[in-house]
Specification:
Residues 1-42 form the Putative regulatory protein FmdB zinc ribbon domain. The chain contains one helix and six strands, in the order ββββαββ. The protein has one helix at 51-56, and strands at 3-8, 12-17, 27-28, 35-38, 58-59, 65-66. The protein is elongated and about 50 Å long.
């Protein structure tokens, strides 16, 4: 099972092994038992942005952007 990061307001960060279906549910802090929210971190952006590249980009159904030269767009 995957390991997810949670943040307790009183005790700080901790990890919990949970099923994927439960990943966004609050987890009990192992020290105090309080419920803690999952910590989510966005993926870093790769590459820079360019005004001329914006016209060639189109967002797909998952929010991904394709650029000329990628394997799927040619």
């Amino acid at each position: 099972m995957p390991v997810y990061d949670y943040e307790c307001a009183d005790c700080g960060a901790f990890e919990a092994v949970r099923r994927i279906a439960e990943r966004d549910d609050p987890a009990a802090c192992p020290q105090c038992g309080a419920t803690a929210a999952r910590v989510t971190i966005g993926a870093p952006s790769v590459g820079g942005s360019s005004a001329s590249a914006g016209a060639a980009e189109e967002a797909g159904s998952y929010g991904m952007r394709h650029r000329g030269g990628c394997l799927c767009c040619g």
